[in-house]
Amino acid sequence: MTDAISKPKTRDIETEVEINAPVEAVWKALTDAEELTRWFPLEAGTNPDGTLRMSWRDEFCWDSRIQIAEPHRHFRIASVERLADQQPAPDATERSVTVAQPTATDFFLEARGGKTVLRLVHSGFSADAEWDALYDGTRRGWKFQLWSLRHYLENHRDTPRETAYVRIFLQKLSRHEAWQRLFSTNMLAREGTIENLRPGGRYALRTATGDYFEGVVQTFNPPQEFSATAENFNNGILQVQLDALFNYRDVNFYLFTYGIPKQEVSAIESRMRGLLRKLED
């Protein structure tokens, strides 16, 4: 007689995007390390054990093992990483799980009249309530990343990406408080406002450092995310994201650019880092 073993209940993330690019280009963007860095991680490569490594500077790494690679049809990776605590959040209401169980990500590609329909299924998220924040954050993350992929392939294919990236941890402010301060005249909105923004609408912001951004809004979801094109940076992408995961809260600023000199992007990153470090002053 054997004891019945019940598997934990899980939930999946499923989303789909149509990209005006041939299936070969989409496949390459998903599977080639250099191509990955033009829309998804800041760095990508292979670990000594053969696993795929994607990282965002020294802030976060995602190691995964390729399980299925059917060219131009199906690509599957399974995570092998464990995500550890980084900083505790003062208010327990924003806490989430600290260690991630293995998940799998499937990319299904279908060619349709010169375009490609890409369907993503990210599976294996626990159905437990303590996983809600991670599940929701990953769902929002994939929505942004697939837009970033489409934007790259339709506007900047084969062009390297330069990124200004700043991350700060919140010690005092809640996300709502941090959001209000971020888009105040002392921070990202010395000129301009985010009031009444809608996806598809236009925005224009001049920061307290004098940097200027304008374009079309992609996502406006206070107090979690603002993303948009950055037309005055050769049609790049601007994203401001506030997360509350793994017992910490953080603010992330990204400016993704194509065809902009690295020294110019680095200078923006330096100014944004100095500015955002004053957020809780």
Could you walk me through the main structural features you see in this protein, from its secondary elements to its overall organization?
By secondary structure, this protein is of the alpha+beta class. About 6% of the residues have low confidence. The chain folds into two domains: 145 residues, START domain (Alpha-D-Glucose-1,6-Bisphosphate, Chain A, domain 4, 2-Layer Sandwich), CATH 3.30.530.20; 116 residues, START domain (Alpha-D-Glucose-1,6-Bisphosphate, Chain A, domain 4, 2-Layer Sandwich). It contains five helices and 13 strands. 30% of the residues are buried. The radius of gyration is 19 Å and the shape is globular. The protein starts with 9 loop residues before the first strand and ends in a 5-residue tail after the last helix. The strands form two sheets. A seven-stranded antiparallel beta sheet has the order 1-7-6-5-4-3-2. It has a six-stranded antiparallel beta sheet with strand order 8-13-12-11-10-9, with helices on both faces. A hairpin with a 2-residue loop joins strand 12 and strand 13.
